[in-house]
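Quick one: C-alpha cells for this chain, please?
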Amino acid sequence: MQTMPLDLPALTRFADEYAYTEASLPVRYAADPYTRIPIYRDDEIEIVVICFAAGQTSSVHDHRGSNCVIRVVSGKILECHFAQDGATLTLSYHHYLHPGDISGLDGEQIHQLSNVDPGGTVLLNFYSPPFKLK
C-alpha cells in the first residue's frame, strides 16, 4: 500500500504537534552554508534538524515538489520569499521567525533562510513527500 504525501495544512498540523525536547536533538554546526541532520524518514514524511551558525545563509531554493514546514527550535531566522517570472527572481516578502514559529511552503515556492542570531539557529524541517537531494 502506497502512502500519500501530506498536503501543506496537514504537514503544518503535524509539525505544530510534533513532540520533542531540545536536548534530544542532534545539534552541530559546520563551516558549510548550514548543517543538515536527518532524524526520521518514511515514505510519507522526512524530519531534518537544520543548524545555522552565526552568519550562515541557505541558497535561494525550492523543495523540488515536496511540501516543507519549518519550525524554529532556537535562535532567529530571516525567511525571504521570491516570485519567479521566467529566469527572473523578485523578492516578494520577508519575515523573521522566532522559537516556536512555523512557516510552510508548497513544493513550488522559492525561499532563502538566513540566520540572524549570533548564537546560532536550530530548525526542525518537515518534508512531505521526503525531500529529494541532488
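The chain is about 5% helix and 45% strand.
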